Amino acid sequence: MQSSNPVLTRLGEAARASRYETGYAPGYPGVQPRTMTMDDVVVRTVALLAITGIFGAGAWVLLPATSVVTYFAAFMASIAGLVLGLVISFRQITSPAVIIPYAALQGVALGVYSRAFESWYSGIVVQAVVATFGIFAVMAALYKLKVLRATPRFTKFVIGALIGVVVLSFANWLFYLFGLNLGLREYSVNGHVGWVPIIFSIVIIAVGALTFILDFDAIEQGQRYGLPERYAWYCAFGILVGLIFLYYEILRLLSYLRR
Hints:
74% helix
């Protein structure tokens, strides 16, 4: 199974490895282990979102608004979350004892950065949250109704587009560090924004939304392959990563439009 979300790309391998370890294969005698269901993934995704929201609200309320220490803490939480996320992804960790701290770290970073954006543009956080979950709900409905399916051609297009926007974003950031700017991003909080950064941000949001189709398909295939129940945490983690990515990009786009 292929997914644009690196968290969910190797579920097929995990399913085969699990059947080998347990000695169980569908259609053959043996004790069938408790397998993952879509409901399991939904419940754990909601739990991770709740943890992220609680820690985000705590950081928003409890940490000083204008303190350098606060922004340093948010930066360190972002770095720690990134490292932990990469470890979870590459090692396919399914333990909630590791995945839950990731959600908490991301919550702290989200809380601090969201409050900063809210201080610059009143009401922007609520708009970004509504837009993020609205897009997710629309993509889930389109997948459920089979309007969009993860065909091989669709998968290649989305993965290629995702790689393209990530490479362009990283290149623009590198040029910016050396005093140049390709014009794809605006890094100031109140500087003039042309049409190019706005269009580029819309493209990133569109690509990010389409990746959910591939993720839904990967989870459905994992269920069909008989992944153990514990992989529901791993799949929920993958959905959380996509939602956080989408939220940050929507927040950026709304800040452009507010200018």
